[in-house]
Amino acid sequence: MPHDQAHRVLIIGASRGIGLELVRQYLAEGWKVHATTRTPDQPGRLGELPGDLTIHPLDVRDETQLARLARSVDAVDVVIHNAGVGRGMPRADMMAINAEAPISAIEALFDARAIAPGGKVVLVTSQMGARHGTKGSLGDYGDSKAALNDEFRRRAPSWAEREVTAIVLHPGWVRTDMGGSSAPLRVEESVAGIRELVAGLTETHHGRFLTWDGREHPW
C-alpha cells in the first residue's frame, strides 16, 4: 500500500496491554498509527515498535492535551478508545476516566473534524458494565462501564449524523496487567479479533454492544 494511501488509526491508551498490541498489529499491516500515552518521554515498548507511528501525550482527563490531540490528527479512519483503569482507584476518578473521558475524547475529535467520513469509532467497555441479568451493585468498575454504555447509547443517534459507525466493545477477559494472569484469552488473540471486527463494521452495527469475536452482548 503506498504511504500516502495508508489507513490511519488513533489508539487512545496505547502504552501496554491491549492498546500496545493494537499499535503493533496495525503497524505490521502498514497503517499510519497515532497512539497516546501519559508518559511520551518514557514510551517504553511503545517507542520500540517499527512503522509509521506518532506518539502523542495524553492524560484523558486533561482538556488541554485532548484539544491538542484533536488538532494534531487528521482524517483518521478508525478511533479506538482503550484507556481505562481497573480496581483500586477512588470511585470519582474511575468514573472520570472510564465513563466520561471516552465520550469527551470522541466529541473533541468530532469538533476538530479529525475523523474521516465513514470512519469507525470503538469505545472499549466491559461485560462487567452490562446491567442485563445483574443483581445489586456492579462495583465501582462495573458502574463506570455501565455509565459509559448508557451515555454511548444516548449519543449514538447524534453520532450517526457525523457519518461514523460507532460501537462499544467488550475485548474479552484478557491476560494483561488489568485482566490478570488467570484470564483465558491471550492479548494477541483478542486484538486480532478486534481488528477483524473493526474491519467488517458497517452502518448496520452502529450503536451496538459487541464482543471481540463479533457477538452481540446484552446491555
Report what the structure shows.
With 219 residues, the chain is of the alpha/beta class. It has a single domain, classed as 3-Layer(aba) Sandwich (Rossmann fold), CATH 3.40.50. It contains five helices and seven strands. The protein has a seven-stranded parallel β-sheet, sandwiched between helices. Helix 2 runs parallel beside helix 3. The radius of gyration is 16 Å and the shape is globular. The model has no long low-confidence stretch (mean pLDDT 92).
Question: What key phrases describe this protein's structure?
Answer:
single chain, 219 residues, alpha/beta, Rossmann fold, 7-stranded parallel β-sheet, 5 helices, 7 strands, globular
Alpha-beta content class: alpha/beta
Helix percent band:
25-40%
CATH-scheme architecture: 3-Layer(aba) Sandwich
**What is the β-strand count?**
7
Shape: globular
CATH class: Alpha Beta
Order of secondary-structure elements: EHEEHEHEHEHE
Unreliable sequence segments: none
Number of helical runs?
5
Q: Major β-sheet, in short?
A: 7 strands, parallel
**Residues in β-strands, percent:** 15-25%
Strand order of the largest sheet: 3-2-1-4-5-6-7
Alpha carbon gyration radius: 16 Å
Assign the CATH topology: Rossmann fold
CATH H level: which superfamily? NAD(P)-binding Rossmann-like Domain
Question: Termini distance?
Answer: 39 Å
